[in-house]
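Appendix B, example 12.
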Amino acid sequence: METKIILLPAIAAVVGYVLLRNRRSSQLAYIDSFKFHPMLARKVKEKYPHLSDSEIKMVFDALRDYFHICNVAGKQMVAMPSQVVDVAWHEFILSTRSYKDFCQKAIGRFLHHTPTEVMKTPTRAQESIKRAWRLSCDKEGIYPATPARLPRLFAIDALLNIEDGHHYSLNCHDKSSPMYGSGYCAGDIGCTSGCAGDSGASDAATGSGPGSSCSGSSCGGGCGGD
């Protein structure tokens, strides 16, 4: 009898873990398959008329990336690093009923909008940007401390020539780089406070991937805030 009593909490913990992982898998699948209303694409096009249809599609794929990392982060703050994706997100929020329903199915709570946030200086990143970087890298299989490329959310503004966007470079200290002396050094984000450990999300809920690289002390904030 005593053995059974001891085992019950362990069994409950395992069941809870499985249920949480299954729910998160279902939410992420919903985000990946979600179809945004065509009206949202038209609104982004009005703001950035130089974008082609395929580039507009890239913007909404990047918005899915953002919702994905917000889901993984739970209630921790995740900065929005892209101006053009932020515009798409804001337009989506204006479709209040649709956005509220999406949030409930995709994240399990209402995700409040926060404006884009960039590094304080080209080489100094705040916690919410660090988390966005680590989770974006983790999603795309990039090692955040020594990235070979930028994750989509950090690359898209420069890639799409967004004039009011936030442009990141793998190494803007390189004098041969076209972004030398300007923009933000993405390679400086991941390890400005020391790297080792998890990605700022709950390993119990998500596991850890190849991009996991920050210590708990350097992972702060909340996705969209509450």
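The longest strand covers residues 168-169. Helices lie at 2-33, 38-47, 53-73, 83-94, 96-106, 127-140, 152-159, 203-206.
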